[in-house]
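User: Predict structure, ligand IPE.
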Amino acid sequence: MNKIIVAKIGGSVFSDKSKPYSLRETIIHRLSEIFGKVSKENTLALVLGGGSHGHAIVQELLEKHGKLENWHVPIINRVMEKLAMKIVGLMEYNDLRPLIIHPHSTCFFAKNSYQCNFEVAVQAVKRKIHILSYGDAIVSDRGAYILSGDDITVELALKLGIDRIFYLSNVDGIMDQTGRVIKETSLNYLLNNITITGSSGIDVTGGMRKKVESLTKLTKGTEVCIVNGLKPEIVRSALLGTRCKGTLIHV
Ligand code: IPE
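Assistant: Predicted complex:
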């Protein structure tokens, strides 16, 4: 059966966020194998986080200039494009050749919100062409704006009318105060009752709390499955719809 699968590959999965510009090639290979197989019968819309690439360059620019300017946009773009090309290069070994959707040439931020023209992405997916996008810097009315991979994932899910999306993270799911993984919950409960702490390593887009908050834009009834991307077998069973062995959030 041909399904559209929207999945965000968190930066902490493909890189070690405490090591700038690192890449976990073995994990990328194993995930590509899985995505490669899944892509034979489904259409993939994948989104990369910034990982220790995007977050590192933004951090460097902030340290040097105090704030992000629009002329920093292409500098950040180069880093993210290179990262996307490397990962897509590794995917090719598994016969997976997604069309890359570049947010810096399709999105901008003005008057407190961002707008993306993902028409090409939607038209491609409709024709069963796999796509890959990534968190990126975009031009805005207040200097470079960092559009996270989470925002793009939500945006794509809305435009593609998807009712279940996947987040690959470096943990087994969202933990409760005692450190136990919450298996199933509503977004409302999560936002009101659970203290969601930040992520480890460099993070310029606000850590886990901001990620969970970005889900509020999704259509009511959407399901979000958060799984450990460092455990490829769990990713495979989640994508194939057998079970979300992580945290399942009902929006
Ligand atoms: C960040 O995207 C993008 C840049 C820093 C350019 P995310 O916030 O989605 O990245 P991860 O998944 O946390 O690494």
